[in-house]
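Memo to structure team: turn this sequence into structure tokens by end of day. - J.P.
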Amino acid sequence: SVAALSEEARRHFLDEDLLMREIDYPGYYNHGEHHRRLLLGLGRLQMAFALRPPEFTAAICDLRSWFALHLLNDDQPLSAYISRQHH
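Reply from structure team:
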């Protein structure tokens, strides 16, 4: 369900935000802002599904695009930063 996805994302983002603060990740603010935007989007997705189920498919496509861009533009640089810190 969208509610379960939202809760899982919230937990993951809290853990990731804590890690970024602990390692003093320079991209923390922007990365965290993207997390906040996704959580807002998931809230809107829950509402859209409850009110207008046919629009749910379009919302899922938007969510898929968001994850792809987030992995490429946010999570990969974070991973590279962590790797450089441990070498």
